[in-house]
């Protein structure tokens, strides 16, 4: 079974819900208006029905007030859902763009790292062919340190983690849970929109 807690209603459902609640409120008001007219006619014919007519007026005013409140609350909820849907769509666009940008950044960082490591290996091989000893090679040039290589791998891993988080968010429809973007550059925007 699908969890629909955070699921956005589809726009057609919101419109239908708003229309149905407004129609129900209008029908209740119209029914009371008709009953009021009938009771007034009856009260004119039989004065003992005047008290009942007054009670119906009070009830009618309450129903009309309730109908107006239902209509206003339904419209406010529809507006809130529409704003939230727009925010989620904007965040989804940002996450998609970030995901594809990270693909490029990761590929570039991997290529640069591989190029530097290959360059160091070629340089060592050239100096070794030239007859230099290991000590002379160490003095002649400084290859990337293991800490530099580890740092590059850590940066690539962080970018891959962010890319994967963006991917999970983009493919989380219809929920699009902003908490999936935790730890990404988009998370401050995601947490503000979730609030």
Question: How do the strands and helices of this protein lay out in sequence?
Answer:
Blueprint: H1 11-45, H2 50-129, H3 134-140, H4 146-170, H5 187-194
Number of domains: 1
Could you estimate the helical fraction of the residues in percent? over 70%
The total beta strand count reads 0
Radius of gyration: 35 Å
How many helices? The count is 5
Largest sheet properties: none
- Uncertain parts: 1-6
Strand content of the residues, in percent?
Answer: under 5%
Mean pLDDT: 82
Q: What structural category do the secondary elements indicate? A: mainly alpha
Structure write-up:
The protein has one domain. It has five helices and no strands. α1 runs antiparallel to α2 and α2 packs antiparallel against α4. The longest helix is centred in the middle third of the chain and has 80 residues. The N terminus is likely disordered.
Question: Could you give a short description of this structure?
Answer:
The chain has helices spanning 11-45, 50-129, 134-140, 146-170, 187-194. It has 195 residues and is mainly alpha-helical.
């Amino acid at each position: 079974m699908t969890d629909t807690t955070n699921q956005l209603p589809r726009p057609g459902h919101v419109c239908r819900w708003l229309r149905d609640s407004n129609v129900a409120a209008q029908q209740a008001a119209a029914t009371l208006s008709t009953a009021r007219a009938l009771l007034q006619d009856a009260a004119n014919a039989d004065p003992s029905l005047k008290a009942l007519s007054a009670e119906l007026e009070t009830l009618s005013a309450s129903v009309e007030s309730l109908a107006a409140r239902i209509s206003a609350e339904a419209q406010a909820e529809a507006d809130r859902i529409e704003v939230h849907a727009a925010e989620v769509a904007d965040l989804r666009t940002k996450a998609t763009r970030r995901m594809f940008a990270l693909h490029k950044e990761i590929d570039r960082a991997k290529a640069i790292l591989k190029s530097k490591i290959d360059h160091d290996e070629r340089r060592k091989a050239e100096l070794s062919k030239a007859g230099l000893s290991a000590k002379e090679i160490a003095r002649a040039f400084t290859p990337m340190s293991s800490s530099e290589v580890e740092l590059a791998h850590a940066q690539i891993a962080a970018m891959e983690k962010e890319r994967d988080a963006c991917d999970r968010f983009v493919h989380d429809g219809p929920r699009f849970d902003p908490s999936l973007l935790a730890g990404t550059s988009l998370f401050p925007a995601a947490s503000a929109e979730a609030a």
